[in-house]
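Need the bound structure for FE2/S2 (inorganic) cluster, inputs here:
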Amino acid sequence: MNRRELVQKIVLGGAVLFVMPTVISSCTKDSTIDPVILNTPGTKIDIDLSDPANASLNTAGGSVIVKSIIVVYTGTNYIALSSICTHEGSTVGYNLAAGNFICPNHGSVFSVGGSVVTGPAAKPLESYQISKSGNILTITV
Ligand code: FES
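Answer from helper R.:
Posting the output first, comments after.
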């Protein structure tokens, strides 16, 4: 190996070390999390029920996740809870038959109000106010 090859390897190695932490960090990030919104009480998030992307909210048991908030239509009303399990951060899902939220990772169960029914989670899911006007759902963070 001559001097030029050695310098090229050192420069390339440095570039890899510089870029890798950024790549690894972006792979582990949940792109739905928006800490600015979730840490700004009073922020409103609108969901248009006529938007095809939100069509599942017109069917009992349907849900969408917006900004780490799971919005569910129970068949009679809408519920908005944090979608992030308080145990280790997995995404919870709604179980229409049981009428509760289940974490697929370790099996924690949460009520429609967000309280823990079955652990290992020890803290409730954050609950958000949600209202409907025409085709628009509004979540107040
Ligand atoms: S991450 Fe949800 S129960 Fe463990």
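Comments: The CA atoms of residues 60 and 75 lie 4 Å apart. The domain at 35-140 is CATH 2.102.10.10 (Rieske Iron-sulfur Protein).
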